[in-house]
Amino acid sequence: MLHDFDATTLGKVHIILMGVSGSGKTTVGTLLAERLGMTYRDGDDLHPEANVQKMASGTPLNDDDRWPWLQRVGDWLSAHNGVMACSALKRTYRDYIREFAPTAVFVHVHGTRELLAQRMAARKGHFMPVSLLDSQLATLEPLESDEPGAVFSIDATPEAIVDAIVDWLEQH
Known about the structure:
This protein has helices spanning 25-36, 49-56, 63-79, 91-100, 113-122, 133-139, 158-171; strands at 14-18, 40-42, 82-85, 105-110, 149-153.
């Protein structure tokens, strides 16, 4: 079973939890990494301070803002196996990430706008305001059939989502 594997014997293993803010990337990613015995890294922690300030002020990021961040994400993936939370909203961003981590699989955690907004509003101490949700949803390009990954609904508990992800990983 996958949860018994030793990542060091398999080469680079990268599981990217993707999706808009409020989708549970951090919660699910942390639980998934624990379940698989892998390192977890939150891509939000790699944002340049200017990006954090821009988002905190209610201004959406653009491509020019995201490329330096994606470079940091890629640098981390080049040096580590693990599970990473990274919005990876566009196909071009995911393709860029795969330049650093060719075997990366993308786990898209997805929910309705209403559920995402509720979850964002309930968070304490996060820099991303609910007002930016619509810009993220407009930017989001769903996984295409030729991309390595799958979509998981956030309607279930985080533990049930992790169970579904592990089941999917074991089959692929």
